[in-house]
Amino acid sequence: MVKSMTTTPARTSVTLADVAALAKVSTSTASLAYRRTGSITERTRARILAAAAEIGYAGPNPTARSLKSGRSGIVGIIIAGTVRRAFQNPVAMATMAGLSEALDDIDVGQLLLSHRSESGDRSARLLDGMPVDAVVFLTRGEEFDGILPSMRARRLAMVGVEGPHEEGVTLVDIDDASGMAVLARHVRDLGHRRVGVVMRSTRIDANGPPGPFEAIDADLDSISNRTIRERLRAVASVFPDAVRVEAGGRELDSGEIAAGRLLDQAVRPTAILAQNDMLAVGALRAAAARGIEVPRDLTVTGFDGADLPLLGRRLTTVEQPLHERGLQAGRMVGELLAGGAPSSIVLPVAFREGDTSGPPR
Amino acid sequence: MVKSMTTTPARTSVTLADVAALAKVSTSTASLAYRRTGSITERTRARILAAAAEIGYAGPNPTARSLKSGRSGIVGIIIAGTVRRAFQNPVAMATMAGLSEALDDIDVGQLLLSHRSESGDRSARLLDGMPVDAVVFLTRGEEFDGILPSMRARRLAMVGVEGPHEEGVTLVDIDDASGMAVLARHVRDLGHRRVGVVMRSTRIDANGPPGPFEAIDADLDSISNRTIRERLRAVASVFPDAVRVEAGGRELDSGEIAAGRLLDQAVRPTAILAQNDMLAVGALRAAAARGIEVPRDLTVTGFDGADLPLLGRRLTTVEQPLHERGLQAGRMVGELLAGGAPSSIVLPVAFREGDTSGPPR
DNA sequence: GCCCACTATCGAAACGATGCGATTCGCATC
DNA sequence: GATGCGAATCGCATCGTTTCGATAGTGGGC
Lengths: 361, 361
Fold this sequence. Notes:
Shape of chain A: elongated
GO molecular function, one term (chains A, B): transcription cis-regulatory region binding
CATH topology of the largest domain in chain A: Rossmann fold
Domain HTH lacI-type (chains A, B): 14-69
InterPro entries (chains A, B): HTH_LacI, LacI/GalR-like_sensor, Lambda_DNA-bd_dom_sf, Peripla_BP_I
Number of domains of chain A: 3
CATH class of the largest domain in chain A: Alpha Beta
Pfam family, one (chains A, B): LacI
CATH superfamily of the largest domain in chain A: Response regulator
Oligomer: homodimer
Largest sheet of chain A: 6 strands, parallel
Strand order of the largest sheet of chain A: 2-1-5-6-7-14
Mean pLDDT of chain A: 88
Keywords (chains A, B): DNA-binding, Transcription, Transcription regulation
Helix content of chain A: 25-40%
Distance between the termini of chain A: 60 Å
Number of strands of chain A: 15
């Protein structure tokens, strides 16, 4: 069912003119009753508001106001993939929480714009048809390049979290590489030499079996997702001999399957460096299913520092300031809308030792 | 065409009139090039689109279009409490996923409207100032009554999930009571006689210590939250002697503390019926902390059937069709926007036996 | 070659509110 | 009672698009 914005007749609504007529003032005066600026007698204002109440006027029409002011007061939040998946992703949610908090403070509405819908491809139509003053790229997605031109044409303020690294997008970036390097060195210092890496799928419509075993630095340059690439590179700098497996999808289960493949080798790794926390949880589960005890028999690490209250244990990982990066993105939106030109920033990360890592047996 | 006057932001934009001028047609013809209806030569359309591309016209201004059509194509999703907390709540998220899916299908945008912001009270201003065609109450909140009049005045289509039970709101309701009754009977049939109930806080700004022990039916009528009330009533019908404790907040930790109080009694219950899954997880944790084994020493049940992949075990609970209720709410929005008058529905729930319940020792 | 029936295009009037510049009002002062 | 002045109110153009009714153009039938 596709609805058309055009065929339906406008709802008969009460307008400011009606209020003005009832209150026996001009519409411009009636308007004054609702604005902050301009001078109007308290008596007149009261009369106008009374008239408004009498005929059930709900206040100035937001659309008309927007047309006049050129501002909608709405920020589009662009999500790679589907809204559903984003909502299942603790990293995205933590960022979103920070972003919401900041956007709340500057009194702008938050419009969710998924780049793809559940039932297939999201037409650019929805994206283009929405009255937004600015957009925030909440999660990094390769698919964004296609929609950038249209946003530039609209002269929208653009803020990105971890990308896209494109002209005109103010960025909140994360120091992924150095964080992952610290973590890898920690694992090496524990004594590990045989490590496996479980990485996120680089395919857009990822779903299926895990990829083959590959050398850690195989084809690194061809990975367009900067986040994935830089994290791998950091691991490679410490463990040039590591083996990597690409999970078949982005969900927990894919991580479990991929990690399982690593664990089922004749000579299995003593440490699995998962490229994010969800994959690490999958690895923990794969270990549990095989009676492998963590951290005694296996070290498992993640990345992100997501809040996983249900997990019941504390992952050794690298903590990103997830909430903070949302806040910063929100702040940037505010500055851009106010006419400023905030500069991009790179936020630091912090290694966190949990109870999933230890020396090899 | 520079038109930055004084205070208004300088957003000099390219308009349809500019395109028309360049293509040497009238603006009405230029408009035709972007519409589905109306007749226009393919040649002319091509010329217009070429002109548009040349001067970087990004397509019709959504705000102006909305003003003319009386429709914004945006649905407001109203969240009780803060956006942040909603995002941490698996029940709300599952519902949201279904809702998003349905709203995607009818090509409407999704605007998040939290009733309260992180930093304090949400002014009605934001809510009132947003150009929405309809609103969906995603989660039940006592605070909604205050904003209903304004929505009625705006003649917005209104759809609610589990409330508010108010005139003009089309509802997707859940058969809470009978589901909870089935679950309670199951626990009774297992042989349990001494049961404790952990319930959600009824305070809006809940945070603090758990409430006192109370009889299950103490003051039931004074609980305005229908969901909480009906679930409790159902338990009371099976276990008139049950003791209830109100958690101090809505988070996991509050559930743990409240359940801990029940477990620390001299004679502790053999079963804890938590009023939702998160509280049940809290109860599991309280039990684990005390070396009480579930289900051998204690039966713990929840309500909702939320997807908790990180938990690692399967809660005995009542499954709501969470995704489905979101879908249904979305469908209702579509029908209302199309001029229909869908009727409210009540969705069934299903008892699900997990591995957290068993006979008392 | 004339008239008719289309159809592509155009002009102008909305949609509902805002804000500039002009006008009127109220009132104190001379 | 006339004058001056600030404050309150008003009229009108405007934001960018859509759409209705009017007009010009095209081609076919006879």
